Task: structure prediction
Amino acid sequence: MQLEDALTTTRAVRRRLDLERPVDLEIVLRCLETALQAPTGGDRQAWRFVVVTEPDLRAEVGRIYRRCFEERTRGAAGRTYENAQHLATVMERVPVQIIPCVEVPGGHLPPRNQASLWAGLLPAVWSYMLAARGHGLGTCWTTAHLAAEEEVAALLGIPDGTRQAALIPTAHTLGATFLPARRRPLGDVLHLNGWTTREPAST
Ligand SMILES: Cc1cc2nc3c(=O)[nH]c(=O)nc-3n(C[C@H](O)[C@H](O)[C@H](O)COP(=O)(O)O)c2cc1C
Result:
């Protein structure tokens, strides 16, 4: 797969996760090896990846996810919500769940800007998702369970001071064709040479 194709067609896969087909753990581990090539500040690599394959654990994580999702989205509507709702109902049956975590120095999140902390983990998570796509696996970035982060930590034995960033369901996809999504146009979000755009002087 071409790099640009992977970058523009790696979607949030929810309805097209194959819940029946097992996922080879070796492939997941290879994708995580690839993810470990992502950058981290000071090359600290303070990342951890909890991989959940055991059915009872997956079921419990899935139940917690669904409860949090329903609490967070009460009264929501629309296509993204409906797709997300579907994922919430099947999360416990997704063959592999990945919970990326970051070890927080001193165990406390910094009071101000936390960008460096999270950026020491999140590029690797996206790398994992791209690598998974290269192996025919679908993923979806989810965060709903973070409202019950401590409950999931207790379930999986994640130690204090190690904070969870996401829950990434992983499964083979039903079909292989994914398309670029509609996004806000670049012109709406681009600020060239300052917030008020100043076109470069022509040379
Ligand atoms: C920080 C973040 C949190 C998200 N949380 C959830 C979530 O809890 N549940 C869910 O189903 N999707 C979640 N998503 C997926 C987004 O809804 C999805 O990426 C977005 O709708 C765009 O769809 P696309 O990735 O297919 O282009 C999350 C994505 C990000 C980046």
Remarks:
- Residues 11-12, 14, 80, 84, 87, 140-144, 181 surround flavin mononucleotide (CB under 6 Å).
- The chain has a mean pLDDT of 97.
